[in-house]
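Data deposition worksheet. Section B asks for the primary sequence of the deposited chain exactly as it was used as input, without tags or linkers unless they were present during the calculation. Section C holds the resulting structure in C-alpha cell form. Section D is free text for depositor observations; keep each observation to a single sentence. Incomplete worksheets are returned to the depositor.
Section A, Depositor: J.P.
Section B:
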Amino acid sequence: MPTISISEQEVLLETLKARFHKNMQRHPNLNWEEISALLVAKPEKLWSINQMELTGGEPDVVIFEGDATIYYVDCAAESPKGRRSLCYDEAALNSRKENKPAGSAIGMAQEMGIELLTPVQYRKLQTMGEFDLKTSSWVITPPEVRKLEGAFFGDRRFNTVFIYHNGVQSYYAGRAFRGIISL
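Section C:
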C-alpha cells in the first residue's frame, strides 16, 4: 500500500484545510476536524488525494446533492495539467500505432487509486462552480458506447454544461480527467 511521509502528510493536510475553509459551499455542515480524522485514518486514500494534488487537481471535499457520501473531487478550474493528453483507456492506447499519448485516463486513475467522474457527478460538480471553461475532462463512458469505440467527455461553454463523445483513441492537450475518491 503506497503512503506518504509524515512531512508530506502535514503539508498536504494544511493545503486541504485551507481549500476546505475557502470553499464551504461544496461541503456545508461538515467540519475540518472530522475530515482530517478520516484522512489520517486512511493513509491509502491520503496517498491518492496527494496524487490528485501533485497532478494539479486541487482536490476538495464535495457532497453531491442526493448522496450522503463524502468525496474528494478534483476542483481545479481547468482540467488537471498533470493528466492531459491522455486517450480514454488502455485498449485505446494499445490500439494506437502512431503518435501514442503517454497513457490513458482510466489507466492513470487506477494507478492513482481514484476513479473518473460519471457524467451525473460531472454535472453535479458544475453546480458548485464553473469548471472546464477552456479545457475538457473525460468521464466514465457506458460499456455499450465504449464497445462501439466511443467515449464521453464534458466541459462548460456558453454557460452550459455539455457531455460530448469522441473516439476512445483521441487525445488533446486541453483534455484530462477529473478524479473522485470516497472517504
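Section D:
Residues 6-182 form one domain.
The chain has a mean pLDDT of 94.
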